[in-house]
Structures are given as structure tokens and as C-alpha cells.
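so i finally got all the pieces together for this one. its two components total, 738 residues if u count the protein bits. some of the lines might not be protein, just check the labels. i wanna see the whole assembly predicted at once instead of chain by chain like last time, that was a mess tbh
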Amino acid sequence: MKRFILVCAFVAALGAYGFAQQSTAFAEKPALVTAIGQSADFEMIKVLLNRAKVPYTADPLVKAEKLDGSAKTLVLVVGASSKGLGAAGISAEAELVRTQALLKKAKELKLSIIVMHVGGAARRGAMSDTFIKPCMEAASYAIVVASGDEDGLFTELAAKAKISLAKVDRISSAGAPLAAAFK
Amino acid sequence: MKRINRFMPVALIALLLLGGFQTVFAQKAPTVIPEVVSAQGMVASAHPLASQVGLDILKAGGNAVDAVVATAFANGVVEPNANGIGGEGYIVIYLKGENKATSIDYRSRASFNPPKEGEKWPSYGHRGVAVPGTVAGLALALEKYGTMSLAQVIEPAVKLAEEGFVVSETLAGVISDNFKKATENPYLMSIIAPTGLPLEAGDTYKNPDLAKTLRLIAKEGKDAFYKGEIAKAIAADMKAHNGLIDENDLAQYKAIEREPAKGLYRGYDIVSAPAPVGGFLLIQSLNMLENYNLKFLGFDSAMKLHLFSEVLARAFDDYYDVLGDPDYVDVPMQALTSQGYADAKAKSIKLDAMTTKYEKVNPNSEHWSTTHMSVVDKDGNVVALTQTLSSFFGAAVAVPGTGIILNNEMGNFNNKKGSSAYAPGKRMNTTIAPTLIMKDGQSFATLGTPGAMRIIPTLTQIVTNLIDYGMGIQEAIEAPRMYCTYLQGPGKTTIELEGALFPKKTLDDLSLLGYKVKSYDKRDLYFGGVQGIIIKDGQLHGGADPRRDGAVFGY
């Protein structure tokens, strides 16, 4: 009976983070956080990193040239916002070029990459998906609000990239797996 | 080659029209939200809780004005991003018993305290706030045309603010999108992000301070807001943060009853909000469109979208150069809404390409011969009301202890010259256009939408959807929309549209006509949130916009 309760508790704990939760902390500090698609979700991830006491630099428009190895982990807040792109003065095409260059440089520098998609279903669609795919291909770990994966896109991309995917039910719940990912 | 060029426009028109023919007779698709039909009274607003408040007032014996005022106060609580008592608006009213149409201007106005020389108004923060008009406007409408007391119509809003309501996906998205600017105002953060992170869908939104403020207005009337405790709190917060508004500005604010802007479109009377807002732009656009057979062009053809773009560009020529606060400048409203003036403007429109240059027409050059919440009550009174904070969450300034979120209307004066330029105490131009449509002396529709510069394009599309394409109200609201960036000047227009809902050919053809095309992959609240009611065969038909949380209730 005791064993049964322990097994149940273990399963429940796993369920709290969705599935395929990253089991060990892998990401080095400090982090560099950027917005891929210029959505306002970027601001919320800054709050979560502050709460997790992860030192970081935030630059929504950081370019590959700025990656010099001082940041050990790249946190990509993915999700497109037409308004955000407009306000930042960057087209969706130019944002994709910036993203691809960032991913290439991060790979050269062997940085860990954490993809965060916390905007749910509202932050999905053709434009967002254009950014999600290359980021997931290059990612070490992904944390998503479950309503953004109703069609299974993140699940499929995580399986293809052979990375762990944490699904949470709301933005505030994304803080725990994010904090746990850092050494 | 010359010969080919000569025939190019004809060939292009023929090619484009082919698309038009295909779509005119397209089968009607079912709507996402079912159209609501009822017999006695109906309320359409951007939030189901606000619509329910209006319906309850109608059922309790209130008239359309009582219901719209109650709906407006309630909507200010449940759609805090878009409106509220820190904002402003315009109401257009038709009183069936008196056969009278009137409107109430409760636009915000500039402080009498001047800015610094050459100062630009910020998009958020205290200096961008204009004197709010909502309380004065709603109180005036109720006093002149309502039957209930202010306390009766405010009470449901008090309850909503006190007990809270469930945050929808739409509101959660807007709070999230505006989180960054809110972080600069700790009191606003305590309302929309009480844990330090934005409220999310399913959370409960409460604003108990706003409940206290509304209760005070219910008890003491509008003077509580403009001369009493609330005025003092607003002025003190302004003073503490370098804002311009003081107690004198608030004490001097008045809502004004004005003659509505009127026009005629294909036999329908259009009654809309006059200067300093956008009703005339809608009427003028429709007047220009009256020169064309829209049904022949097709609903979703590139040529129709091109025509709308050309028409709207010409209408907006008058937005900055001619429109202004009628208490400060002479606005030739009769000329601006006349068929002759619109016809003269339409002459420079070419159907085969985007216009790169055209002569502007002066409305004063000769005498031109002629000239959104929606509620209908059981007596046939009809009201359209649009109110706003300007941007979502306005200036992102909430007045400590009051729960009031203030507008950022002052930005509407930026880069304006002539009739639309800043002056102390002046009301600024805006495009809001609550509108009524009459047919043969009977009410036909009440319409309105938010959406900043998309308001007039969206309303023009809705009116033509109803009148030219014979759509039902819900179908007209759900039909895909376009917007054109006419302010970039002739020849530089980008057409933005809900491209996934238009045929691909239409997007390709727009490029052929010379447009840049920006396509949205679904219905998007960028294109507004229309709430409307039409009256047909003695029945009320209500439509709500799935682009927001619109809801219609009737009985």
C-alpha cells in the first residue's frame, strides 16, 4: 500500500510539470533572454527569471554579433506579435533572419537554449509557427503553456529534436521548471 | 507596346472583375456566433456581463438610454482595457416618440494648463492624460433622455467591480500585451497584475476601489467626479507626477449635446457622431461609394478592396485639415457630408491602379448642395454609444485609491496643425463613430466599433455588407475585413486584411494593382469589435463580434 502511495505521489509530481520534464538542472548562468517575434511575453519571462534569481541580460532585439560567450544560456521567448514587431521597427522576415543567425551563433558557442512559449493559443498562428520551428530544432529544453500545444506542434517538434518539453497550465507555473533548469 | 498599354487597364479590370463575379454568388457560410433574434428589447456590447446588465435594465422597465448608460458603466468595469470613467465617448440617440435624433459629445479635452514649448504628448504617463468625459456624458444622457436614477443604473457596475468577474482569453491577452507599460504604475499593477504577473484567463478580476468610486458617483452625482473627492484624488496624482490636469480643469468639464452628422446612402439615412469625431468620415466614404455598384464588383474582390482604399484615403484628407473641435474651429459639416463634395472627390479614383497623386478638393470652395454599445427598447428608441480610453489601458495611469484608469487622449494632438492642432481646453479629433441607420423614417440599425484608425474602414464595410450585399447583422460582422494605410499618402498604401478569409486570388490581384499586402491569418481584434442590432420585419436581430468577447442579449 505504502509503495502504491509512493508511486502515485511520484506520478502526480511528474504531472505537475506536464510530461518529459527535464530531470536535472543543465543550464549555466548567466542567461541572455530575447524575444523571438517581439511579443510582450518577454516581459513576463523577465519576472520569472527575477523570481528564480537567475542573473540575466534582457535584449529583445539582440543580434548574433552580441553573443560573445559571456551568457551561457540563451532563453528564447517565442511568439509573434504584429504590434510588437511594428513597435520594434522590424519585419517578420528580418526577425526570422535575426533568429536564424542567433541560433547559429549559439550553436557555435555551445550555449544551452531554452525555448519558452507562454502566450498559449493566442500566440500561435502562421507567423508564430515560422519562429517556433527553427527555435525548437535548436533548443535544449522547452517550456510551454499547454494551450499553445493543443495541436501537438511542440510535442512533435520536441520529439523530433529529442529534447524535454515541460507543459504548464499557466504563465505563473512556468517559473518552477524554468528555475529548475538552471544549475 | 503603346497599344498593349492602352488596353492593359481594360484587361486588368476584366481580369479582376472575374474574381468579383465568382464571389457575389458564393454560398453563405454559417456564422461562428449565431445571430440573436428577439421581439422587444436588445443589448449588444463587447462583454456578456455588460450586455446582461443592459438587458436587466430594459426588463425592469428602463428605456434604451437607461440601458445603454448602465451597460456603459458596467462595460467600464469588465472591459477596463478599453473604456471606463477615466475615458470618454460619444452617444447617438434616436427617440421614436419625438422622431428626434440627437448626440452627446463627452470627448475628453485638454487641460487649460499649457504644455512646454514644442512638447510632444507621450503615449503613456500622466502628461498624456486628457480631462475625462465619461461620467458627465452618461449623466447628461440619463438626465435628459433616461427614466431611471444614476444610482439605479450604476449599481450593477458597482457589484461587478466589488465581486469581480472571470478574466476572458481576450482580456488576458490585452493585459499581457500591455504588461510592460503597466509595470511603471504600481497601483495599476495592483489591479491588473496583483501577483506581479498579469492576470490570466480564468482568474478573477476585482477592483474594489472602483466600486467605492462608482458608489460615490451614484450617491452624489457627477459632481463627485468633477468637483468632489474624486476630482481631488485625480488632481493630487497629476500634481505628484508632473501631469497637467488640475481641479479647475475637472470642474470646468461639460458634456455637450450636438446635432448629429447626417447623410443618405442608397435610400438609407445615416445618423452618426458629429465633430470632433469621425461620423462624417463614414458618411463621406459612403457618399463616394454610392457612385459604384459594389454588388457587381463582388464582396471580396481586389477591385472592391482597392475602391475602399481609394475612398477612405480621400475621406481622411479632411480628418486633419478640416475637422476640429467645433467650439474652436468652424467645421463645414454640411459640405463634408454632402453628396456633391463626395462626388467631386471620387472623380480622381481609377479602378485599374492605386492612385499615386490626386488633387485634393476644398470643401469651402463652393456651396455643396446637400448634405459603439447598441441598444433598442420596446418603444423603438435606439442608441449607439462608443467610448474609449484611446489606447488599451489608456495612459497606464491608475489614480491611487479610486480604481480609475485614465485615458491617453492627448497624443491625438501630436503633429497636428490647423483645425486639429492643440489648444488649451480643446477637444481633440478622433475617429469614433457610433452610428444609427434609418429607412423610410424607421430605425434600421445601430452600429459601432472600437479600433482607432480602423473604425471608419470597418464601419464602411459593415454598412455596405448590410445594404449592398444584403448580409444579416452577424454575417456582416463576421465577414473578413480590410484596412488601408491611407495616411502614408497616395501611392504608398499597404492593404492589411484578414487574408486567410479572402480568396488567394484577391491578395494576388491587390499586388497587381500596386499595393503592398499585409495578411492576418485569422479574424483579428486589430480590425475592431463591432456590436450591432438591426430591425427587420418587426424583429430585432443582434450581432456580436467574435474578434472580441462581444455578446448580444434580447427578450
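Strands of chain A lie at 31-36, 56-58, 73-78, 112-117, 141-145, 164-168.
Residues 137 and 160 of chain A are 8 Å apart (CA to CA).
anyway lmk what u think
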